[in-house]
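hey m, so remember when u said the tokens were messed up on ur end? i reran from scratch. heres the input so u can diff it against urs
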Amino acid sequence: MLQKFSAMTQHLSFKYKRNFFLRRERHHRLLHSPWAGGLVLVIFAALAMILANIPATAEVYHHLLESHLTVGFDHFKLSKPLEAWINDGLMVLFFFYVGLEIKREIMAGHLSTIRQAALPIAAAIGGMIVPALIYTGINLAGGEPNGWGVPMATDIAFAIGVLSLLGNRVPVSLKIFLTALAVADDLGGILVIALFYSTDIRFEILAIIAGVFLLMILLRKFNVYKMRYYLILSIIIWILFLYSGIHATIAGVLIALTIPSTPRYTKRYFLYKTQFYLDSFRQHNRDGVKILSNKKQLEDIETIRQIAVNAISPSQRLEYALHHMVSFFIMPIFALANAGIRIEGLGDLDVLFRPLGAGIFLGLVLGKPIGIFLFSRLAVYLKWGELPEGTTWPMIFGVSCLGGIGFTMSIFINNLAFTNPAALTGGKISILLASLTAGVIGWGITRIVSPRKNHKNP
């Protein structure tokens, strides 16, 4: 009887452990799936719309965003509305992450060689120029000409997420092309923000920023790997940018450029040292004695941990550590704070028939695919680049339509371009409608032109 009970207990224990690990594996795949971040963004954007349009919550929602949060000391304080802390503070981390991503792609990714980079860079340039021209042409005689940068942006999370919904129906090379295109587009957006959406620039503060930035570059040059030094100088640069006239998020990109991208230890050193301390761990093993009570084994494990950490470059560690924070916290919070648009009725959709709304909508829905596709054809025709393996031009056009999903970056530039509340709200409505339209059209075209066969992921 006891044997049967013991066998049953072991079976239940094994079944519980197996189910636990299966659930854990499913959760891990969900968190790392390309569409998960986009799904969370949609949920938080919808939540913001609901909160802003229900009378019982609208006042609380807007009051919370306008509430001032003060950080500092007696003689130095930063006091800003919560919305400003999100847009000028949290988004610095987002742009820092984007900077790390761009740096990786340029150094060792899909933008690391001229041949690889030519096609996505050409596509990104076309995807910025044509929408800006469409918007400017519509708004030149009237409207809001300063908003030409709004339809230039592509939201990488949404675009990759929508394409990933097609699964193995699309080749991996097409996903790589869209990723590289979106990264190059982000770089263009950052330059546009820095050069054209900065006001009342204080050059004396920029000179101080240049000095601190140079100091951070010297730290990297002299192989300083302790992150606390970079953190202190990063906070100083961010505070200086707040008073410089250039948007503070640019600080995140500059800081990312200074983070060491080479590991402290080489692969050869890592293999040799870890093997040495693993051998030491085995030698000091004593039967019946747990690691907790074995001081030498604890030291060996800690040393192996330190070696493993230093075998990965600081920029890689930070990018990996920030991925979930950016995808599941920073961007959703940004959407929650900025997508809360009060819709009085269908009359608010008339913005699409005014120069501002028409410029943004047509720039994203028409300008993006036309610019990306035509400049891609031009790059291949001139033999600067080549069509990604396993793709066709109809597939490239479908992905070009997905480039019209502006959302996060477009809303961010929208906040910088317009000061008039009516223009600000109209721009957001146009961005949301254009992004939804571009996503549906891009998904539909890509699905139709993609053959019904599975493409293996690498």
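this time it looks ok to me. The chain has a mean pLDDT of 86. if urs says something different then somethings off w ur setup not the seq
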